[in-house]
Amino acid sequence: GSFEKFFNFFVSLLCFILIYCYERTLREGAYLKLLQVCLALIEDGTERQKFEQMYWQYRNLMFHCAKKRLQDDQLAEDAVSMAFLSVAQNMSMVKEAVCSETKWLLVTMVDRAAINLYKKQQRIYDRTVPMDEVEHMTQESDADLVYSVAEAIEKLPKLHQQIILLRYADGYTNRDIAAMLDFSVAKVDKI
Predict the structure, then answer these.
(1) Nearest 5 degrees, angle CA 140-CA 145-CA 146?
(2) 13-48, pLDDT tens digit by residue?
(3) What percent of the chain has pLDDT over 70?
(4) Which residue did the predictor score with more confidence, 11 or 186?
(5) What is the pLDDT of residues 88-145, one digit of tens each?
(6) Using an 8 Å Cβ cutoff, are 94 and 105 in contact?
(7) Cα dist. 109→32, 115, 179 in Å?
(8) In angstroms, rounded to a whole number, what is the distance separating the alpha carbons of residues 164 and 174?
(9) pTM of the model
(10) CB neighbour list of residue 96: distance below 8 Å, 6 or more residues apart
(11) Torsion of CA 124, 64, 57, 29, to 10 degrees
């Protein structure tokens, strides 16, 4: 009776704790790999120390902000990775490792990354073709079209290739691309 209920509850609780610890260990391993990659992008030793301090201070906050928006652990981790990689490549944006300005910057960056991931997921979902329409498509004509487009893109100047790939392969808006490349939106629109 009551012992059996207690035992089942205890086993369930133990399983929950083990799963939680396992998932947390996996996440910690992914965070350590991300930290190593980011630190490798930073040449200056002082900047590396500043990044590492900032990383350990704000990574959990960033994860929770991204998860709140995306409702998915893996996508939230991707958003955190994107934000930290961006910061590692632009350490001049960070004046101090731990301060309200840095916290605001990181939360804003992870939120922007989460929004971009969400939009990309929506575009993928929107492009899903119903099975009854698949029957009318031929693989040969699709492959020829993809090859032709790839050939045409390869003939463009590198800047144009980069903008096209950011826009259509990665799903960024012209405004986002302009911010990333430090161009005006009008220039990106023109290209």
Answers:
(1) 100
(2) 665 666 555 555 545 555 667 778 888 888 899 999
(3) 72
(4) 186
(5) 888 888 999 999 999 999 999 999 999 988 888 777 666 555 655 555 554 445 556 6
(6) yes
(7) 20, 10, 12
(8) 10
(9) 0.53
(10) 50, 102
(11) -60
Tokens of 186: 């009008």
Q: What one-letter code names the amino acid at 183? A: F
Location of structure tokens 């994107």:
82
Residues 6 or more apart whose Cβ sits within 8 Å of residue 70:
76, 79, 114, 117, 118
